[in-house]
Structure formats: C-alpha cells, structure tokens
Amino acid sequence: MDFSSKLLEQAVDEVSQLPGIGKRTALRLVLHLLKQPESQTVQLSEALLNLRKNIKLCENCFNISDTQLCEICANTSRNSEIVCVVEDIRDVMAIENTNQYRGLYHVLGGKISPMDGIGPSQLTIKPLIDKVQAGKVEELIFALSSTLEGDTTNFYIFKQIERLEVKTSTIARGISVGDELEYADEITLGRSITNRIPFENSLKN
Ligand SMILES: [Zn+2]
C-alpha cells in the first residue's frame, strides 16, 4: 500500500497489527477517526493507556480486575467453595450473563498447547492446585471449550488433583465440540452449568 503520508502510514501500521484487522480496514478506521473531532481520538488513546497502566489481575482468581480482589471474589454472597475453571475473562463474562452460577472462577489465562509453545507453567495451574490442596475448594467445574487443547488442559489438572478431597465436574455438553464458550447462547450455557456432570463421566466418551 502506497501512502503519501508517513504519519498516516504509521497509524495504519499500528492499527493493522490488531487481530482480524487488515491494512484496508485499518486505513478505513484511521480515516474515520481523522474525520471525527480530535477529542474522540484523545479519549480512545487515553482509555487504552489507562487500561494498560492500571489493570490488575485478581489475586485470587486471576481475572482481569480494577482492584486487587475482583468484584466476583469480593462478593461475600457467592459460594467460594465452588470454583469454575475457565480460559479467560470472556468465559467469565459469558457464564455471568447466564445468571445461573453463584460460585467463583479460576482464570487459567490460556490452554495447554504444545503447538503454540504454551505449557502448564505459563498458565495459572499451580495456584489452582495450591488452592485445592489448601482444602478451600469443594467442587471444581471444568468449563474450558472442548477442543483438543481444552481437553488436554482439563485432563492435566484433573490428574494433579485426582487424589485430593475435591469433587470435579464438567459443564454438560449442550455446547457442541469445538465451540467456544463465549459464542454459546445464554440459555444453553446456563443449562449446561446447572446440569453439569462428574468429570470422570466425560472421559468415557
Ligand atoms: Zn477474582
């Protein structure tokens, strides 16, 4: 793409590094911003910078949070003995939207994926095992998407805690194999949490 302006080219280059955004889309977005009042660009940059500088991970569940303890973990009316294991904040948001779950979460930050060079140590698996070992968890619900990586991750964690005093379950698969949690509709996802099944049963099929 030939630009007559270095400044424009630079902005397009930056925007096009975002996932799913090619050079053409980046150019359209940047030109759109240029047509809007300057204050809009300032607000956009400030919101992103602010997010970047001030965002934290909850010290208990590792969800993205504004405070040391996220709102969910800090809510004393929730059942802290039930912990739902998810990949990232999008899954937390999807499950929260169902209004069917009153336990806490544990956000792994990804899935084990040797192809992408992601091993157990890059995820928050260790703190999860520690939590279970400390006897703070009565039930662990595996809610990773049922892809090869999701299944591998579930099984890895399951093997680590198999002998400990904890009940394990997995969300019922109204959600078809390979579907990401965030795309499941609220009713289906809500039902699959309510009708969760013992994790061992999910290994047999
Ligand atoms: Zn939390």
UniProtKB/TrEMBL annotation:
C4-type zinc finger span: 58-73
Membrane-traversing stretches: none
Domain Toprim: start-end pairs: 81-176
Keywords attached to this entry: DNA damage, DNA recombination, DNA repair, Metal-binding, Zinc, Zinc-finger
InterPro entries: DNA_Rcmb_RecR, Rcmb_RecR, Rcmb_RecR_Znf, TOPRIM_dom, TOPRIM_RecR
PROSITE patterns attached to this UniProt entry: RECR, TOPRIM
HAMAP family: RecR
Function: May play a role in DNA repair. It seems to be involved in an RecBC-independent recombinational process of DNA repair. It may act with RecF and RecO.
Similarity comment: Belongs to the RecR family.
Annotated protein name in UniProt: Recombination protein RecR
Source organism: Christiangramia antarctica
Gene (name only): recR
